[in-house]
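U., I forgot to send this yesterday:
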Amino acid sequence: MKTEDIQAIQELLATPKKIAIIPHRGPDGDAMGSTLALYHFLLKYDHQPTVIAPNEFPDFLAWLPGSETVKVFEKDKLNCAKILEEAEVIFTLDFNALHRTGEMEHTLAKLKAPFIMIDHHQKPDDYAAFTYSDTSFGSTCEMIYNFISFLDRKHAIDKTIATCIYTGILTDSGSFRFPGTTGNTHRIIAELIDLGVENTQIPVLLFENSSFSRLQLLGRALQNMKVFQEYKASFTTLTQEELDAFDYIKGDTEGIVNYGLSMKGIVFTAIFIENKEEKIIKISFRSQGGFDVNEFSRTHFGGGGHSNAAGGKSDLSMSETITKFEGLLTNLNIQ
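Result:
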């Protein structure tokens, strides 16, 4: 961050304030980890922070300290709107365009309080008074660690804050496998562990508490997978009927897309998930190496994200979406 921005934020936070902290819609481990880490940090300095998520977060993140305090806009719009309107500072974490908050966008766009954006995605919008944006980071949680350090408050990071930061780094780095993981990432992780983070237990809470129905859903997704060795690509699908048949709850499809990259020679994969309520096909893209799924998603499916991990959507039917995707594969030059 620029030195003048850090100084301005220090002055802004010098006295207790009502502060809203916003993750993106469909919050993941990095979104919830970063917002709750900041929440606990601000509490230490007598601020009145409130985390307002656009919609529900997955059950496998409900153990995070402070998760019980999170307000959900979709469930309590009037109260959440009131909190936002009264906020004196608004942090937006792990996203860089207000439309990523869904219905909340209209409320946020009307607010007069200064916004502070902390994010690691490409092409940030310019709605924030202060922007800490850097695509070289593998997670927003790593940036939150830096942000607290920039404010000369690194000593305030305790086990609770460290646990939230660790969770976001772990999940967004693919358990430290993705390209954004650096030596400095591991140095931060070491410091967090020294602060008491239960690094052997957190992966269990995140990845090894599956229900039987969730495992059955994974099995169906793997059965549905199609492989195109000639294009070095794969994809899988889950229809609304399949989600319903296996008692889908939010978070059950988390990580399934990554299985498409586990096959030898595959560098590009996708998962297409039907949502009949919203009348869309939700899409996640993953790649390894130089193939840019962020650009692919922005160009063809109205989405975006990172070079190797992005999301999108389709207003077409599942079959029409798949036909479109397969047609695009024939024109790609994947190395």
